[in-house]
Design a protein that fits this description.
With 709 residues, this protein is of the alpha/beta class. It is 29% helix and 21% strand. An eight-stranded mixed β-sheet has the order 12-11-8-6-7-14-15-23, with helices on both faces. Strands 5-4-17-16-18-19-20 form a seven-stranded mixed β-sheet, with helices on both faces. Helix 7 packs across helix 8, helix 9 (193-203) packs across helix 10 (224-236) and helix 20 (656-663) packs parallel to helix 21. The two termini are 24 Å apart. Bound molecules: adenosine-5'-monophosphate-propyl ester (PRX). The site of adenosine-5'-monophosphate-propyl ester (PRX) has 22 residues, from helix 13, strand 20, strand 24, strand 25 and strand 27.
């Protein structure tokens, strides 16, 4: 049987097994009590019929997903709900045609034209709130689509890279692409120019859309400079960017000192004037046409472009927004994520707008200028559904535990996503932020998945702090051990969580790399490569999990070389590749350390080349800079440690597990099989000091954070 993240070198299975057995240790957490949604919430909820699970049971699969697809407006109804003929490249709603921009904008005009579609809050608190009605969104999306088509020459199937901050012009650009069937690839605004350039190359984009500047922690950052770096990087790898479209953060002034390049860079605000009032007919796209790419980290140094579909994706995010987030057209919904991540695509832009909700966007840092900011925004805008990450909850709780009490807002439901949430943080969220009135959903899913996989159904299932919940309707998980044996619910043992069936939101492939797609997500537990039966193709999620007796699933964290930093995925191999660009570095190993706020943070170990003259401090500074340059500040390591040698197996493999144990002040276990065991104690003393082996992080702490290192 292939093993987890089978892209890795052979000989690593033992390490995987170790990880899993460590994960197994972590599962004896205390069972938490249940919390029930209040009657006021249940009374108004979209999904209250417990028979939904019967309707979405295996015997009704895949036709059950018609319920989601029927929430959309189709130009042509589909003929086949699920086509499995090219397993595991599933096709949903085959024969159907629709346009995503039409579904998120045009179809709401008759009833909701004057209702706010997007309400935007600047980070600068004295800047006025911006409200964009569905009517105005319609006009602006059309004009932008005209510009993309007639000024840039873009057509259906072309790719556009968008590197923008959290401003309304970002969803406007995305929806304009969708109107034309142009595939957008949004790169998180906090990623570096180089990271953006690498994604331009992979997606083969000829057009980059960016913005001159934006506010972050009170500073107006120059963002245009990243476009120049991105274009240079792309061109050095053979991908020419013909046009850079620069939105202006302020209409009447420039926010970046970086000059425009004549014949390449254009201000969108200027060019748009030529397209005033132009309407672009939405292109009727096959359900299976790609809608967007979203790059994410995996086990290799190269991020992969997850390709999401038009019909299946939109149906799934619309259905789950309606049932799990309980969004009604009358709701003021605020997801505090960034649109540059999948959460923002699915649950700021596409899901809420398909349901004609009002979607709130915030430009900046949640704790700027103080930890009361989110609650002031909620009060001011009448937000009644709030969606955020455990990291944000921990941070807001630490900096302003009593802030929510100062503001008059009223949440009916709240969501968390991205990492396991420990019960202490959950309880604060529930009692203090939600005042015991809001239903909480802890939603587990991934960039690859399009939408939620596990969560409580907010008006039906009680909440259990620290557990994501049961699978959502139409999702059939299974937990396997390393050898493909099922670990039954209630056994108390951890294993690899897989989803047995395809679902409409699941990505179609890795852009340009079908082989890696099959290898990474299906090879591990597939027993018959030529089978066309979906039952033979469990989707391997790469997370450890425990399924409790009550049907609730607890996610323990990644079982591969991915570190979840503050809910964001970073591949250790990507960080290590960045380290190796520093000329003095001979070897690099990146390990995750447990952090009370951010869940995990990376720590870097470096062995320098013989004869290196630079001091340890100089090398460490260069390594940090290299990581920030190639990925972004989000990946900045907690520490860079220059060590005499890396602990290695006899076959020369770096023992990251040993380094991770040292960084986490844990016992490093048996090292007798290493080729250089003596170096381990040297490194331990360097990191932990000369005293006895520390065990600061005990099993209790590990349990709180889910997975172990
Ligand atoms: O480890 C799981 C964790 O985040 C990973 C997916 O990261 P990404 O693709 O960036 O998507 C994040 C937002 C969808 C998963 O493999 N994760 C996500 N949600 C949860 C979670 N871990 C525990 N509980 C969650 N609710």
């Amino acid at each position: 049987m292939a093993h987890a993240g089978s892209e890795r070198e052979s000989g690593e299975t033992k390490d995987d097994e170790l990880r899993l057995s460590e994960a197994e240790i972590a599962v004896h957490w205390k069972e938490e009590e249940y919390f029930h949604p209040v009657p006021k919430f249940v009374g108004q909820a979209n999904l209250t019929d417990p028979a939904v699970m019967e309707r979405f049971s295996e015997k009704n699969f895949p036709e059950c997903f018609r319920e989601y697809a029927d929430l959309l407006t189709w130009d042509k109804y589909w003929t086949t709900t699920l086509d499995t003929s090219k397993a595991p490249f599933w096709k949903w709603f085959v024969g159907g045609r629709l346009n995503v921009s039409y579904n998120c904008v045009d179809r709401h005009l008759a009833k909701y034209g004057n209702k706010a579609a997007i309400v935007w809050a600047s980070e600068a608190e004295d800047e006025p709130i911006v409200s964009i009605t569905y009517q105005e969104l319609y006009v602006r999306v059309n004009e932008m689509a005209a510009l993309l088509r007639d000024f840039c020459g873009l057509k259906t199937g072309d790719r556009v890279t968008i590197h923008m901050p959290m401003v309304p012009e970002l969803p406007i650009t995305m929806l304009a692409c969708a109107r034309l069937g142009v595939i957008h690839s949004v790169v998180f605004g906090g990623f570096s120019g180089e990271a953006c350039g690498a994604r331009i190359v992979d997606s083969k984009s000829h057009v980059l859309v960016t913005m001159d500047g934006y506010y972050r922690s009170g500073k107006l950052l120059d963002h245009k400079v990243n476009a120049d770096i991105a274009v240079k990087k792309a061109e050095s790898e053979g991908q020419k960017v013909e046009k850079v479209l620069v939105w202006k953060r302020f209409h009447d002034k420039l926010s970046s000192p970086t000059p425009m390049v004549a014949g390449r860079d254009y201000f969108v605000n200027e060019e748009l004037k030529k397209f005033r009032g132009v309407l672009v007919a939405p292109i009727s796209m096959p359900a299976e046409a790609p809608l967007f790419l979203m790059y994410t980290s995996g086990s290799t140094g190269k991020p992969k472009g997850c390709q999401h579909s038009t019909g299946g994706y939109l149906a799934y995010v619309t259905g789950t927004s309606r049932w799990i987030q309980d969004i009604h057209p009358t709701d003021n919904y605020w997801c505090m994520a960034d649109i540059g991540w999948i959460t923002g695509h699915s649950y700021i832009v596409y899901g809420p707008l398909a349901l004609a909700a009002t979607s709130v966007m915030y430009e900046g840092v949640p704790t700027y200028p103080d930890a009361g900011r989110p609650w002031r925004i909620a009060e001011r805008l009448g937000v009644n559904i709030f969606h955020t990450s455990p990291t944000a909850i921990r941070m807001l709780r630490k900096l302003g535990p009593d802030e929510p009490k100062k503001y008059h807002y009223n949440f009916k439901s709240m969501t968390t996503v991205g990492e396991p949430i420990e019960p202490e943080a959950w309880l604060w969220y529930y009692h203090t932020v939600g005042r015991g009135q809001a239903a909480i959903t802890d939603t587990w899913w991934q960039t690859e998945n399009g939408g939620f996989l596990c969560s409580t159904k907010p008006a039906i299932d009680p909440m259990k702090p620290g557990s994501t919940g049961p699978p959502v309707p139409g999702i059939f998980p299974i937990v396997y051990d390393e050898h493909g044996k099922e670990i039954p619910a209630g056994s108390g043992k951890a294993g690899n969580i897989c989803i047995r069936n395809p679902w409409p939101g699941l990505f179609q492939t890795i852009w340009g790399d079908d082989e890696r797609f099959v290898k990474q997500y299906y090879a591990k537990y597939n027993s018959n490569k030529s089978s066309k039966d979906w039952r033979d193709w469990p989707y391997f999620a790469g997370d450890g999990a425990v399924w409790a007796k009550d049907g609730y699933i607890r996610i323990l964290g990644r079982v591969d070389d991915v570190i979840n930093v503050a809910g964001h995925r970073l591949g250790t191999k990507e960080l290590e590749s960045a380290c190796l660009t520093v000329s003095e570095v001979a070897e690099a190993a990146v390990v995750p350390i447990v952090d009370p706020e951010r869940g995990r943070v990376p720590e870097v170990y470096i062995a320098v080349k013989p004869g290196t003259k630079a001091s340890a401090e100089e090398v460490a500074a260069k390594v940090t800079l290299a990581i920030e340059t190639s990925i972004g500040k989000i990946a900045r390591p907690r520490a860079v440690r220059i060590v005499p040698d890396m602990p290695k197996t006899r076959s020369g493999k770096i023992m990251r597990r040993v380094l991770a144990s040292i960084s986490n002040h844990m016992d490093y276990g048996d090292i007798t099989t290493l080729s250089n065991p003596e170096v381990v104690e040297q490194i331990r003393v360097q990191v932990q000091g000369a005293g006895p082996v520390e065990k600061k992080v005990g099993p209790e702490d590990i349990r709180r954070f889910g997975e172990t290192t």
